[in-house]
Amino acid sequence: MGLTFRDETFRDDFTFTNSPAGIRRFPFPFAEDHYRYSVNIEPHKPGPKGSVVEFPFDIDEHYVSEMRERAMVLEADPLRCQALPHMMTAQWEMLDLLMTSLARDYPDLFTLHRDGAQWHWINRPLGIDQTFTFGDASTLPFGPMEYIGRQVQGDFTIQDQRDNQLWLDAGILTSPSDWSLDFNLGMNFTEWHAPVPLAHEAGVFERALKF
């Protein structure tokens, strides 16, 4: 891919910038000058080569610096990564999905070798070379969701499905917008979206939940 990772900060001197190439990759060409809530959930289909939607999970020039920042946030506030006890299987599924996807789509950056339950994961940008037993959390330095969550850009939640609802029962969020995982953990889809203005009247969340 030929990615060059930027060495930047997101606090104190705040040296974050986008390169011209990074700006060109911005995925939302706004057609209008105003924004309203909408149901922007859709199945992922591979996008144009080199775009941010080419692969299910995007790795860009800010990757290394963002992962360094995420580690700092989690050290200062460990409650930004939590999972309810019944979500352990889902945590392993998240790790499986992310490792498999990253190794397939970015073979120059990530490698995954699997021999039954014995896995070997290599993350070259972060200098990680880890062997572990899939399904045995004691063989990783963190729980499976946190381990892989520290190696992917963006915030993640895992929802359980029961009683015709989605329940926010696990997540790793180091840059949420005006909400707290610690407060919302265990809430259902309707409850954790309750404070959002206007969207409820427009039926946005009802349609999203049905989707």
Description:
The chain has 211 residues and is an alpha+beta fold. The protein has one domain (20-210). It is built from 7 helices and 6 strands. The chain has helices at 20-24, 63-76, 88-105, 144-149, 181-184, 189-192, 204-210, and strands at 81-83, 110-115, 118-123, 128-133, 156-162, 165-172. The strands form 2 sheets. Strands 1-6-5 form a 3-stranded antiparallel sheet. β3 (118-123) and β4 (128-133) form a beta hairpin. The mean pLDDT is 93.
Key features of this structure:
single chain; 211 residues; alpha+beta; three-stranded antiparallel beta sheet; 17% strand; globular
Entry summary:
This protein is α+β, with helices and mostly antiparallel strands and 211 residues long.
The mean pLDDT is 93
Give the assembly state of these chains.
single chain
**Percent in helix:** 25-40%
Give the CA-CA distance, first to last residue. 34 Å
The number of strands is 6
The main sheet orders its strands as 1-6-5
Apparent shape: globular
Helix-strand layout with pairing:
Layout: H1 20-24, H2 63-76, E1 81-83, H3 88-105, E2 110-115, E3 118-123, E4 128-133, H4 144-149, E5 156-162, E6 165-172, H5 181-184, H6 189-192, H7 204-210
Antiparallel strand pairs: 1-6, 2-3, 3-4, 5-6
